[in-house]
């Protein structure tokens, strides 16, 4: 079963963390991806640029409306994701607890709806 682990944290608070600590968190995340890969659980992962770099697209009455992000004013923003294979929700939650971002923010665990007809990649 595929799960998206969505990492949320406060971007302003994150920027106040010492650079070495931020680099350590990234290194730990990279190490986790290697561990998940070795266990056959890794599909994809990536940090995201800050929410202020987002562009929002809506289509209303057939016309695209493009605005700068972020989507909503919140205390925590989406910082990145892990796309994993897990046996069940319990295993996905266990993996989410290993994501370094969980120590400074929140990791949302969401099962993916697998539908037929989508192009498949080698990893998925």
Features:
alpha+beta; Alpha-Beta Plaits; 27% helix; 124 residues; 3 helices; four-stranded antiparallel sheet; 6 strands; single chain; flat; two-stranded antiparallel sheet
Report what the structure shows.
By secondary structure, the chain is of the alpha+beta class. The chain has a single domain (2-111), classed as Dimeric alpha+beta barrel (Alpha-Beta Plaits, 2-Layer Sandwich). 27% of the residues lie in helices and 33% in strands. It contains 3 helices and 6 strands; from the N terminus they run E-H-H-E-E-E-E-H-E. It has helices at residues 11-16, 19-38, 89-96, and strands at residues 2-9, 42-47, 55-60, 63-68, 77-85, 106-111. A hairpin with a 2-residue loop joins strand 3 and strand 4. The protein is flat and about 45 Å long. The mean pLDDT is 90.
In order across it, which strands form the biggest sheet?
2-5-1-6
State the oligomer: single chain
Q: How would you sum up the global shape?
A: flat
What is the string of helix and strand elements?
EHHEEEEHE
Ends apart, CA distance between termini: 11 Å
Strand content bin = 25-35%
The main sheet comes to: 4 strands, antiparallel
CATH topology: Alpha-Beta Plaits
Helix residue percentage: 25-40%
The CATH class is identified as Alpha Beta
How many helices in DSSP terms?
A: 3
Count of beta strands: 6
List the uncertain runs: none
What is the averaged pLDDT score?
Answer: 90
């Amino acid at each position: 079963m595929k799960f998206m682990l969505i990492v949320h944290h406060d971007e302003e608070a994150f920027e106040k963390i010492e650079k070495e600590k931020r680099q350590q968190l990234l290194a730990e995340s990279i190490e986790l991806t290697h561990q998940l890969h070795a266990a056959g659980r890794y599909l994809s992962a990536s940090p995201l640029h800050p929410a202020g770099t987002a562009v929002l697209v809506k289509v209303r009455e057939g016309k695209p409306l493009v605005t700068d992000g972020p989507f909503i004013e919140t205390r925590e923003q989406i910082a990145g994701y892990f796309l994993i294979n897990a046996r069940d929700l319990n295993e996905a939650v266990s993996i989410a607890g290993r994501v370094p971002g969980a120590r400074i923010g929140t990791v949302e665990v969401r099962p993916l709806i697998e539908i037929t007809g989508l192009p498949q990649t080698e990893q998925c």
